[in-house]
Amino acid sequence: MKAKTADKIATFVIVTLALLIVAVLAGLLGYILFRGVSHISWDFLTSAPRKIRAGGGIGPQLFNSLFLLVLTLLITVPLGIGAGIYMAEYARPGRITGFIRLIVEVLSSFPSIVVGLFGLLLIVNIFGLGFSLVSGALALTVFNLPLMVRITEQAFRSVPSQQKEAGFALGLSKWKIVTTVLFPVALPAIITGTILSAGRVFGEAAALMFTAGMSSPRLDFGNWNPLSPSSPLNPFRPAETLAVHIWKINSEGLAPDAAEIAAGASAVLVITVLIFNLVARYFGRLIYRKLTASRRMN
Amino acid sequence: MEATLTAPHILQPAKTERDFRTENLSIYYGTYEAVKGISLPFPEKSVTALIGPSGCGKSTFLRSLNRMNDEISGSTSKGSIWIDGVDINASGTDVIKLRQKIGMVWQKPNPFYKSIYENIAFGPKYHGVKGKKALDEIVESSLRRAALWDEVKDRLKESALALSGGQQQRLCIARALSVNPQILLLDEPASALDPVSTGKVEELIKELKEQLRIVIVTHNMQQAARISDFTAYFYLGQLIEYGMTEKVFTNPENTMTQEYIMGRFG
Fold this sequence. Notes:
- The structure holds two protein chains of two kinds.
- Chain A has a single domain, classed as MetI-like fold, CATH 1.10.3720.10.
- Chain A is built from eleven helices and no strands.
- Chain A has helices spanning 3-36, 42-46, 59-90, 95-108, 112-126, 133-157, 161-169, 174-203, 206-209, 242-252, 258-292.
- In chain A, helix 4 (95-108) crosses helix 6 (133-157) and helix 7 packs antiparallel against helix 8.
- Chain A is globular and about 70 Å long.
- The mean pLDDT of chain A is 86.
- Chain B is an alpha/beta fold.
- Chain B has one domain: 3-Layer(aba) Sandwich (Rossmann fold).
- Helix content of chain B is 36%, strand content 24%.
- Chain B is built from eleven helices and eleven strands.
- Chain B has helices at 8-11, 58-64, 95-101, 116-126, 132-145, 149-152, 165-177, 195-208, 221-227, 245-250, 255-262, and strands at residues 4-5, 20-29, 32-41, 47-51, 75-83, 86-87, 102-105, 183-187, 213-217, 230-235, 238-244.
- Chain B has a seven-stranded mixed β-sheet, with helices on both faces. In chain B, strands 3-2-5-6 form a four-stranded antiparallel β-sheet, covered by helices on one side.
- In chain B, strand 8 (183-187), helix 8 and strand 9 form a beta-alpha-beta unit.
- In chain B, helix 4 (116-126) packs across helix 5 (132-145), helix 4 runs parallel beside helix 7 and helix 7 (165-177) packs parallel to helix 8 (195-208).
- Chain B starts with a strand and ends with a helix.
- Chain A binds chain B through residues 92, 160, 162-173, 176, 180-181, 184-185, 291-295, and chain B through 66, 68, 71, 73, 95-100, 102-104, 106, 108, 110-115, 118, 122-123, 126-127, 157-162, 172, 175-176, 178-179.
C-alpha cells in the first residue's frame, strides 16, 4: 500500500471514531436534557419532594449536592495539593514513594459500593458520625484524594525544571519556589483535576447511600445557624443528594410523576455540573492571569 | 595529568578579602568523578571562559560554584571554593545568602511565568527590599544594566514569556543582577540565540565585567576569544590548560588544547 493511501485510511478511521464518540455523548446528553428540561421550573428547583402526591421538587437535594461538594473540596483540595507537592518536590524517589503511589492508585479504583459500606462501618458507626454530610464527604474523599494527589504531582512535575533552577539561583528557599514559582504554572492542571473530582461528587450515589443517608430532615432555609438540626448548613445532618434521589425515586418512588421528577432531576444534575465546570474554569483563568500576568492559559 | 599553566602567578594569588577561586575541587555523581581536583582563580573585573568538549565537566564545575549541584541527589564534592576568604563549599554554608552573591544564567532562557516587572522585583522583594519606589528603582537599574530597559519600559506589566528569545535571555541576566551579585555564572548563555541577540549579549558581558566577575561556559571558540580575559580548557574532568585568553588561543602550551581550539578534536 502506498504511504499516501495508508495515511488517508488512517485519517478516515480516526475521524470516524472521533465523530462516533461525539455522537454518543451528544445523544446521551441530548436525551437527558430533552426528557428533563420541560419539567424544570423555579418551583421544581426550590420546593421539597413529596412522597405520594405529584408535584414534588428537588430543592433540598440540589442544595445538599452543592453543600456536599463544598465540604468534600474543603477536605480534598488542601490535603490533595499538599500530598501532591510532597510527592513531586520533597519525597526522595524510592520504594516508599513507589508504595505510596501504588496505594493511591488502588484507592482511586475502589468500587464505590465498597467505599460506601466501609464508610457505613467505620465513619457512620465506629466514629459515630451517623448518616451525615460529613460522613458523605469523608467517603467521597476516598475517591477524590487520590485523584487530587496524582494530578497535583503531575502538574508540578510538568513545570520545566529550569524554573526551579532559576529560583534556587536567586537564593529563594524551596518553599518559596514551590508556592510562588511552580504553583502558578501548575495551577491550570490542578483546576482541571478539581473539576474532575467535583464531577464525581455530583454523580456519586452508591458511596453516599450508606454515609450521607437517603433522607433529608425538613430543612428551614431561613435558619442559617450551622448547629441547629433543621439548618441547611448543619454538616452533621443526614442529606440525600441529587444523584441518590434520582436513584431512589427511580427504584422506589411512589409519587405518580416519579419518572418526570427523575428525568428533571437528571437534567438539573447535568446542567449543574456544566455550570460548575464553566464557573471553575473562569475563576481559574482569572487567578492564573493574575499570578502570571499572561493573557491566556497555556 | 598536570595542568599546563601559561599564567602561573594567577593560580597562587595573594589571599585577599576579594578573593574568588577554587582549590582542589572535585565533584562526584555517586562514585563517578565528574570534576577532578581543579584549582582555578577568577580574577576581579574579568571574564573567565571554560571551554572543552561536551561531557568534560565544565558545566558541572560551573554549577558547583553557587552550590547548585546540592539540588541534584547523589552529587557530592570535595575541596574548597573561596569567596572573600570564606570556604563556601564547607557544610553549614547558608546557600540562600551565598546564591545572592552569585547570579546564574542558563543556555535556555527561563523567565518566571510572571510579568517583566515581577521577574526582576521577585528576588529583591524576597530578600527584604520593601516599598514600591525602591523596587521600581531596582527594576529599572537592573533592566538598564542588561540593556533591555528601552525595549520593555512601556510594557513592564506584560508577561515575560511574550518577549523574544534574545530579550528573555537579557531579562534573565537582569533578574540575576537584581540581587546585586558579585559574580555572574553563564552557562552557554548565547547558544540558543540568533546572531544579533548573541552580539547584544556579548556586548553586555563586556560591559558587566567592569562591575563583577564573570565565568562563562561556551562551545563557541570565537566567542571565548572575543569576550574572555582568561580561558580554562577542560578535558575529561581535568584542567588541561589555563591562562590569558590571548596566549591560550594563539600559542597554547598543550597540544590537546591547540587541537581542540583548531577544531581538530572534540
